[in-house]
Amino acid sequence: MVITTTIPDSGEHLDSTFASRYVRTPVPKYKMPANPIPKEAAYQIINDELMLDGTPRLNLASFVTTWMEPECEKLMMASINKNYVDMDEYPVTTELQNRCVNMIARLFNAPVGETDTAVGVGTVGSSEAIMLAGLAFKRKWQSKRKLEGKPYDKPNIVTGANVQVCWEKFARYFEVDLKEVKLSEGYYVMDPVKAVEMVDENTICVAAILGSTLTGEFENVKLLNELLTEKNKETGWDTPIHVDAASGGFIAPFIYPTLEWDFRLPLVKSINASGHKYGLVYPGVGWVVWRTKEDLPDDLVFHINYLGSDQPTFTLNFSKGSSQIIAQYYQFVRLGFEGYKNVMENCLENARALKEGIEKTGLFNIVSKDVGVPLVAFSLKDSSKYDVFEISGSLRKFGWIVPAYTMPPNAEHIAVLRVVIREDFSRALAERLISDIEKVMKEMETHLIRVSTKTAHVTATVDETQDGDDGGKKHIKKSARETPEEIATYWRQLVARKKTGVC
Amino acid sequence: MVLSKPASDSDLTMHATSASRYVRDSLPRYEMPENSIPKEAAYQVIHDELLLDFKPKLNLASFVTTLMEPECDKLIMESINKNYVDMDEYPVTTELHNRCVNMIARLFHTPLGESEDAIGVGTVGSSEAIMLAGLAFKRKWQNKRKAEGKPYDKPNIVTGANVQVCWEKFARYFEVELKEVKVTEGYYVMDPAKAVEMVDENTICVAAILGSTYNGEFEDVKLLNDLLLEKNKQTGWDTPIHVDAASGGFIAPFIYPELEWDFRLPLVKSINVSGHKYGLVYAGIGWNIWRSKDDLPEELIFHIKYLGAEQSTFTLNFSKGSSQIIAQYYQLIRLGQEGYKNIMENCHENAMVLKEGLEKTGCFEILSKDDGVPVVAFSLKNKKGGHDEFEVSEMLRRYGWIVPAYPMPADAQHVIVLRVVIRAEFSRTLAERLVHDITTVLHELEKLPPKVNGEGKEVHVNVEENWSNGVASKRKSDLETQREITTYWKNYVSAQKEIKRQKIMAS
Q1: Of B117, B202, B188, which Cα lies nearest the Cα of B158?
Q2: Which residues does the record list as N6-(pyridoxal phosphate)lysine (modified residue) (chain B) (predicted)?
Q3: How far is B255 from chain A (nearest CA, A)?
Q4: Which terminus, N or C, of chain B has the lesser number of Cβ atoms within 10 Å?
Q5: ipTM of the predicted structure?
Q6: Which of helix, strand or coil describes residue B380?
């Protein structure tokens, strides 16, 4: 006779994840748990929590690529365990980086012979690229000043107030003074004339942006080059230009090939571009290219004996993944010039469609230009009843992330909403967004009508006091505005609370 | 009647990739190609070229993780399109980052309340972490000197000569002088006494390494702390310590819990650790933890309104992937402290197996310690055979192994070591196989003519004095032929390397 015994609470491995105890225990947040858990449970717990993140493809705030072909993802997954910096162990991966540098340099018309190796490097993003470029300028300027026997302790850089934060970081961390050309209403990029005026003997370079973050506009690098060449002739300072082509670098060559902004202009000494924006790669790759070897001081380049062989390195990061670099090469080979051009033309077309749809509502001013990065920045014609921040909040209900922000000085009174058109933002999505914006605007108006009819009633009864009693009048107006304001403030505080903590 | 038409040459979608014209064209190297090609072709040609990279798992030169569980790979792939810096759009990812910081901070005994948030940040690697830590020290020191009305233009940092290159980078890029404590033969890490001697009023911090790259040794941070405390009392300079725990940070807490090296020592103000080394995550993640808010000057933190929402950021990189951060959190909760401990114990065990196997050959001297990072650093006992460690390293490649050889730092450059890093995925089987292959390599080397003489100098042919004429002439031609062959091969390989090196340097 077989005696059967039931084994209580045994095979934990038999429990389906949601039947197990792992979904009952609170998730560890402050202290590393003492014991391990099954990998399926770990996967499930984390995956589930991550469902509450925004959907990357609906994040219309970002320029950074959110979709790539499955073949490319396969290549990325296969190389995820390759540490890029082990150049000796992964020579092909290193070679692919070099090929990308060569291709990008030629895209920017760098003066290199047909089979010359260009001077450039892959980085983790444009932030690192800009810091490297800035360092090169700073070191070159310092060496020049030392030779001339002049003081070299107060370097500065001239940019527009519309620069992305990485320039401010560069300035603060590397102790360079940032001289910003202020913007004005209607002119949201750096004015070349004002910029050249600000240049002095301590200026290490002037940085122009091809594709301003705020409005997508291309700055007039050609005019800057001409004015600066003149000034250099008078002063003999030889101030160079850097072009921050984070967004524009992979746009202009394909759809504005006659626009002169790159190494065709003699004062441009280095250019950075984000592979992960219109380079069409997932986040984590940027590029910086120098005009020639002379523009990259050799004492910044490290030749080290790491892991047994000579490795020259000029990057801030050392160990990092190889996937994005391989993905960049894939895109260059897969799409070619023709492919990138087609993608950009589609983006522009969809941007145009979106712009027209927004204009049709009659409630917005379009702040972005037609030429530049494919985005649509728009402000309210009338911000007295509600503002763009509230519209941005309401759009989230539909799943869209459309950011709202104020312009930098001196145009802080202008607030805009901005939609970035990426490769994966199809016409269908554009039309859907327009219809959702219309819904939101209707909501805003209806809500106000309801409130204002109440107010009208109240106002009627206190009409006599309007002229004489300022206090009373103000009080009435406040109550019409108070409710939506309260709601918006409450929501803003809720969102702000989520953002406390470490950086 | 249906008119059937056979597929023409131009119907590219029909062709198998290997039948198509894409595998006949060479891949573009200098200029972006004009036209697009099918995605399958693009995948295939790139994939095939990459076959010539070495296998990551056999790369015994690197500390960086090369294997993770498929569940984690899945999470990584799912978040590959999330730009980490969009904190407002991906609040959960940001939250996971914060949890990792909290957990790692507590692992290092940061003085924190139970549900208090730690001060720290995720980075792309220890290089970025060290630059941020160094920047914080520099700024703090400058502010202090300004307040005292003293000059603040010549900051310096004291480290051992065995520091990893990122410290030299930090020094050079951020204009801080690097004062290196030289190592000596037999003592390959920073001597705390010498380090403290070098400290002056311009020293922004002393950096100690927990897990030296060269031989895996842990520096004596406790002794450094004690000596520096004394000196601070005398001088009033208040010089702090930073611990570069790139490797050791995920080892010591699990297998040497009594070793005092972290925030238990009062002078330690910040610690960096590589998530992608013994944190067991793929390349691309590091962490830096500060003791308290006071150790991170507020002016270095940026509060920005990017993409419409307010974010505070203290990193050098901005946009980057989220995958490795999520993977780190996965590992921390999947393994827990027990899991990490088990893995480290296994690594240690396998390192001992390898060490003993090497000792048994009788040809090697072991330069790594038993305690520390699980690496085995070894050099040839004597160069009587006339061969050096570089040759051993070169020959091991033929068997698929990458075992690097390199000289120790100044002033022990004459000592050459081979170093094997034991990672989590380096099993006992592989350890035994490696010993076997090293033994084979030694046998092969014995048959080859000497490259170096007893003093480690290259040998120049001069055989006559040792042989009678008749024998000499016969022997010489045999030897000559062998020598010619090996010289030819060696020249060929170094020429290739030189070409490669020049290409890399130019880019």
Answers
A1: B202
A2: 277
A3: 14
A4: N
A5: 0.84
A6: strand
Cβ-based contacts of A293 with chain B (< 8 Å): 506
Given an 8 Å threshold on Cβ–Cβ distance, is B102 in contact with A31? yes
Which residues of chain B lie closer than 8 angstroms to A42, CB-CB? Answer: 71-72, 330, 333-334
Backbone angles phi, psi at A110, to 5 degrees: -70, 140
Instruction: Provide the edge-to-edge strand list for the sheet that holds A177-181.
Output: A119-123, A286-290, A268-274, A241-244, A203-209, A156-160, A177-181
Contact A336 B99 (CB under 8 A): no
Cα(B403)–Cα(B430) distance, integer angstroms? 13
- The stretches in chain B having pLDDT less than 50 are 5, 7-10, 454-476, 507
Phi-psi region of A216 (alpha: psi -120 to 50; beta: other; left: phi over 0): left
- What pLDDT does residue A486 have? 62
B81/A66 Cβ within 8 A: yes
CA of A148 to nearest chain B CA: how many angstroms apart? Answer: 20
- Closest residue, chain B, to A401 (C-alpha): B89
Residue A447 distance to chain B (closest CA, Å)? 25
A86 preceded by a cis bond (ω within 30 of 0): no
Q: Which residue of B has its CA nearest to A113?
A: B30
pTM of the model: 0.85
Which residue of B29, B73, B504 is in closest CB contact with A94?
B504
SS3 of A400-453: CECCEEECCCCCCCCEEEEEECCCCCCHHHHHHHHHHHHHHHHHHHHHHHHHHH
Q: Do B89 and A401 touch (CB under 8 A)?
A: yes
Write the single-letter amino acid at B468: S
- Name B420's bridge partners: B376
Q: What Cα–Cα distance (Å) separates residue B361 from each residue in A32, A138, A401, B356, B436? A: 42, 54, 65, 9, 10
d(Cα A5, Cα A319) in Å, to the nearest integer? 55
- Region A177-196: mean pLDDT is 92
Task: Read off the pLDDT of residues A336-387 as tens digits, 9 standing for 90 and up.
Answer: 999 999 999 999 999 999 999 999 999 999 999 889 999 999 999 998 888 9
Question: What pLDDT score was predicted for residue A312?
Answer: 65
> DSSP per residue over B297-365, as a string?
-GGGSEEEEETTEEEEE--S--S-BSHHHHHHHHHHHHHHHHHHHHHHHHHHHHHHHHHHHHHHHTSEE
* Per-residue pLDDT tens digits for A385-419: 889 999 999 999 899 999 998 888 888 888 999 99
Distance in angstroms (rounded) separating the CA atoms of residues B122 and B144? 27
Q: Report helix angle B323-361 to A39-50, nearest 10.
A: 150
Please report, as a single letter, which amino acid is at residue A69.
E
> Residue B181's pLDDT is what?
95
Amino acid at A291: R
On chain A, the residues whose CB falls within 8 A of the CB of B326 are 46, 50
Supply A439's token pair. 């819904």
Instruction: Give chain B positions within 8 Å (CB) of A319.
Output: 64, 125-127, 274, 276, 283-284
Helix, strand, or coil (residue B381):
coil
The residue-averaged pLDDT of A266-283 equals 96
Best B49, B291, B334 residue to mutate vs chain A (most A CBs within 10 Å):
B334
**Which DSSP helix (H) or strand (E) runs through B487?**
helix B469-506
A vs B: CB pairs below 8 A: 409
Is residue A251 helix, strand or coil? coil
Q: What percent of chain A has pLDDT over 70?
A: 84
Residues A118-152 have pLDDT tens digits of 999 999 999 999 999 999 999 999 999 999 999 99
Q: Is A163 helix (H, G, I), strand (E, B) or coil?
A: coil
Distances (CA, A) of A299 to A26, A217, A303, B158, B372: 53, 36, 10, 21, 34
Nearest residue of A to residue B421, measured between CA atoms: A307
Nearest to A137 by CA among A167, A111, A164: A167
